[in-house]
Amino acid sequence: MNTIECTREHEVVAAVMSGRWPEGCDVELRDHAEACPACRDVVAIAPALREDLRYADVQVPAAGQVWWRAAIRARADASRAAARPMIWLQALTGAGAAGAALAGLSMIWPKVQGVLRFAPFGDASFQEALPLLLAVGIGIAAAPIAYFLAVPRD
Amino acid sequence: MTEWTLSDVERLSALNEADRTFQMSEEAFRSFYELTSRPVWLYLARITGDRRLADDLLQETYYRFLRAATTFESEDHRRNYLFRIATNLAHDNRRRSRIFAVPVDEAESNVPAQTESADQVARRLDVTRAMSTLKPRERSLLWLAYAQGASHEEIAATLGLKRSSLKTLLFRARRHLVAALGSSPRKAGRL
């Protein structure tokens, strides 16, 4: 006998599901279930699982509450999705502004260099001062972007 | 769960939008929910072993169901789709948090119903405890097959399994549950 599956298993399951098992079903089916290893296993577990589904203490939220929460969530998701391109656009704008600032700085650098020669730290060469100036420029440009991205807007 | 803070006007507006955003009307949803919420919640509670997680996943299941852009051929198809969402959410959650150690809240979920005999209650408790020792997929299989009475096609569709492998998996799950139940005559079903 095939112990993995029995051709009459669905009959046994149907009897359990309909509440006919064991008294309300054929004696012949009960005899079969007693003799068949697969159906014996089914009978050992299916009635208890069915009773669990039927009698377990379940307190689900009201349908209106679930609907309402889903509606609010859908709206919040839609708002977030709508705002996403704007956030990217703002970040791109910030990056563009930073690039323009750097380009402008490089254009006026020779004049700045001339002024720096007379400053107290005016001995520094262009190459020596460049990392510091770049860091300051990037910091000034990136600070508003970082602030915008970091602060929650709910 | 995330708490949304919206004004009353926004709430009303969200409810108006919901009918357009969701795949069914509120009235249709209420009917469907009344029929399915209890079995879905129990399914989630039994495969996760956590009532509170089941509460959260129930809400998420219905949210994703409402947002789904799927055409349903029948009520069974609709119902199976809902269980598939619930299954995927439970399994995703398990992969993320690994909290399926399953201390099933027996005291809470196994309050005897007035129509239940002491023998029925004891048997139900035994099976609930034994179920908690199985793998999540085995729990899903057994619950769908023997609590819901789902066909092999429905189970395969819900769990994303091949029908050819389902019989073997179901057989193994059944054997594991029977072994976990032990050989006590009380624990076995009445023959």
What does this structure look like?
- Chain A folds into 2 domains: about 10-55, no CATH class; about 85-150.
- Chain A is mainly alpha-helical.
- Chain A has 5 helices and no strands.
- In chain A, α4 (about 65-115) runs antiparallel to α5 (about 125-150).
- Chain B folds into 2 domains: about 10-105, Rna Polymerase Sigma Factor, Chain: A, CATH 1.10.1740; about 115-190, Winged helix-like DNA-binding domain superfamily/Winged helix DNA-binding domain (Arc Repressor Mutant, subunit A, Orthogonal Bundle), CATH 1.10.10.
- In chain B, about 35% of the residues are buried.
- At the A-B interface, α1, α2, α3 and α4 of A face α1, α2, α3, α6 and α7 of B.
Number of domain modules of chain A: 2
Summarize the main sheet of chain B: none
Number of strands of chain A: 0
Oligomerization state? heterodimer
- Give the overall pLDDT of chain B as a whole number: 81
As a percent range, the share of strand residues of chain B is: under 5%
Largest interface (CB within 8 Å) is between:
A-B, 49 and 67 residues
The percent range for helix content of chain A is over 70%
Q: State the helicity of chain B in percent bands.
A: over 70%
